[in-house]
What we know:
Elements: E1 3-4, E2 16-22, E3 34-38, H1 65-72, E4 76-81, H2 115-122, E5 128-133, H3 139-145, E6 148-151, E7 171-176, H4 179-189, E8 216-220, H5 230-245, E9 249-253, H6 258-276, H7 295-306, H8 309-322, H9 331-348, E10 354-358, H10 373-377, H11 384-389, E11 393-401, E12 404-412, H12 417-430
Parallel strand pairs: 3-4, 3-5, 8-9, 8-10
Antiparallel strand pairs: 1-2, 2-4, 5-7, 6-7, 6-11, 10-12, 11-12
Amino acid sequence: MKAQGPVTGEDPFNAFITRCEWKPGGKGMLAGIMVAVKDNISTRGIPTSCGSRILEGYTPPYNAHVVDLILREGAGIAGKTNMDEFGMGSSTENSAFGPTKNPADPSRVPGGSSGGSAAAVAAGMVPMALGSDTGGSIRCPAAFCGIVGLKPSYGRVSRYGLVAYANSLEQIGPLARTVREVSLLMEVISRYDPRDSTMGDRPFTPRLTGEVKGLRIGAPAEFFGAGVDPAVGESVREAIGLLEQSGACVVPCSMPSMAYALAAYYVTCTSEASSNLARFDGVRYGTPDDIRKPWHDAFREVRAKGFGEEVRRRILLGTFALSAGYYGKYYAKAQAARRNVSADFARIFRDVDVIAGPTMPTVAFRIGEKTDPLSMYLSDILTVPANLAGIPAVSVPCGKVNGLPVGLQIMGKPLEDERVLDVAYAYEQGAGR
């Protein structure tokens, strides 16, 4: 195996940070298939940068569990894909290696933080890719690029070898052009790993029947509320209507906790990031220019040079939320709000089988358009609830607005990943994709 990179030339969308020559095997469920791997998933002998200068030159001595699984099934690794630094972003503009472009329109973002993986699939560079989803980082780029992306239930896929951003929220998941391909990759990567104490031993059993007769679909009004482009909302309502024509029943419902889900998410994820990223101190990772300096001086300098602006911002926010005198005001309240989000989902799921709505409130925006961090954070409003509750959620293409893809998001009960994929498959078949 050889690694080349950073990639230049045959990558017009800047989808890859590192290209590989890890060829596929001759047998197995993924025999002959090249898979792209997000650059925060450890690969033995291949640089893993998390889109950050602070990890420049770092090569893991081991594979993530999911990487071992795809190799065991005959897949090859096409390369490590571009991403928002440490997964912190919704556009893949926060990469130390430059922004990724959307194959649907190169002037626009592909979404993030798994934008490189989504762009590589959408451009036909690879048939499948691995991403990670902390607050929408698989579903957002899947929606913006017009492909399928699944955030599995929390604990359904091993996180061993995933460079941690926010442990209680993130999951590795598959991206591909069709639901069937996503289901195949999910079947491989969901095999049990005792090294991840959050993972349960529950095999993923594909069930793509395409049958939705009698299925009860919840469509919370809040998923179509303020901030959602009316044209996007209409496209998604038409998609839900197609499922209704196939025999499903749409059940009106409400999710009041959506009002504070985004705030709860950002307090939680930044707090966990503050703790997780403390290891990047110039001793274990990142090299200070002068190791003779006092530790705190070297620590400050290496982080200032190695981390991008957005990562530094989130570390500061998280450190503040956890600091003495503010823990109860921010972090503890965020956890209470998180419990309310989970309770709302549990209440709605007593009456419905799945919940459907838009994946993103708008179509892909232009590169450089969102300069205000708050406007970028608001892009996550429809995806973060699933992470807070740990439930499965998939984005499947459901039309276009102004020539740009729109994603239908389908969410299910905890560990019912097979069902959400089956509903997505039913829509995909009905729409003739």
